[in-house]
Write a structure and sequence with these properties.
The chain is of the alpha/beta class and about 325 residues long. The N terminus is likely disordered. α10 links the parallel β6 and β7. α8 runs parallel beside α9 and α11 packs across α12. The protein is built from 13 helices and eight strands. An eight-stranded parallel beta sheet has the order 1-8-7-6-5-4-3-2.
């Protein structure tokens, strides 16, 4: 394709994206974008699979949903990546959904309000009924992400974070949520103020990982920060961090007052955590762990689904 042709293609793509945004704004039904709509979808005391890059691919999410996850989140998807390469192999893999999990929570990351809005509008239009909400990543601590002002770097730039939320919410008919951390560092714990700003901008819920960006995944998650956010805002708050077993789920609810709990590393190789947590929450009783035979059967199922979806090399992704 010649340089003028590429320029024409980009212009056409931008024009189509603007049209999708206009259509979404005209069609957006307010009642479907509220906090109550999200809680109605995921139920009382929901236990959800958190977004994890390299882990929460479609086959694994489907298994977790079948095991009792109230909602599953995609791996984080780059809005810029979709903008410049919407049909790439990586984009197709990230946007593959399991029939068992839909509607799924789609997590986007980026710091350009217009591009974030364009991609949220496009995806909600292209995948009707398959996406429950658009979640904005404001918690990723990885250096190559924060270096671009994305992920947890947005917690140091509330003005841009608010602009992103407002743009996505204006463009997209789906509920818009955000996942954040307790702050950037021990001296910059601003989760409460940041959550209040996001609430004012229009997010329907906020998930709080109780670690700072500087901690990455070291040390202990601060449940007190999650509790303070819950006390400060009027939208649902989901707690995240150090949820490694069913009892941890119960303690997250009890100690923070959170409206929901996200399970991340606790689901590594253990999708049964959702079944066990649900049973403990509903009955107060501890469920027996899966047998070796069941573990093997599910592992084989996961491997077969990965090969079917992504080819044999994808088995290396198994968690």
């Amino acid at each position: 394709m010649s340089r003028p042709d590429r320029a024409d293609a980009r212009a056409a793509s931008a024009g189509a994206a603007s049209a999708r945004i206009a259509d979404a704004r005209a069609a957006a039904p307010g009642s479907e974008r509220t906090s109550s709509a999200i809680m109605s979808l995921i139920g009382e005391r929901p236990v959800m699979l958190a977004p994890m890059s390299g882990v929460t691919e479609a086959p694994f999410r489907g298994i977790c949903r079948r095991m009792g996850a109230s909602l599953t989140y995609t791996e984080m998807v780059s809005a810029k990546g979709l903008h410049y390469n919407p049909d790439s192999r990586a984009a197709r893999a990230l946007l593959r959904f399991s029939a068992e999990e839909v509607p799924v929570a789609l997590q986007l990351f980026g710091a350009d309000p217009q591009i974030m809005a364009e991609q949220a509008a496009r995806l909600s239009a292209d995948r009707p009924g398959e996406i429950a909400l658009i979640d904005i990543n404001m918690g990723c601590p990885v250096a190559k992400v924060v270096a671009k002002g994305e992920g947890s770097a947005l917690m140091r730039d509330p003005k841009t974070a608010v602009a992103v939320v407002e743009a996505v919410r204006a463009a997209c008919p789906l509920p818009v949520t955000a996942k954040i951390r307790s702050g950037w560092s021990a001296s910059e714990k601003n989760a409460v103020e940041f959550s209040l700003a996001l609430e004012q901008a229009g997010v329907a819920a906020v998930a709080v990982h109780g670690r700072t960006r500087d901690q990455f995944y070291r040390g202990r998650a601060d449940k007190e920060v999650i509790a303070r956010v819950k006390s400060a805002v009027g939208i649902p708050v989901f707690g995240s961090g150090d949820v490694l077993c069913a009892q941890d789920v119960v303690e997250m609810f009890d100690q923070t007052g959170a409206d929901g709990v996200m399970v991340a590393r606790g689901a590594y190789g253990n999708p049964w955590i959702f079944r066990e947590a649900r049973h403990l929450l509903d009955t107060g009783e501890t469920l027996a762990p899966p047998s070796a035979a069941e573990r093997l059967a599910v592992a084989r199922e996961h491997a077969a689904a990965l090969v079917d979806a992504f080819g044999e090399r994808a088995v290396a992704r198994m968690r």
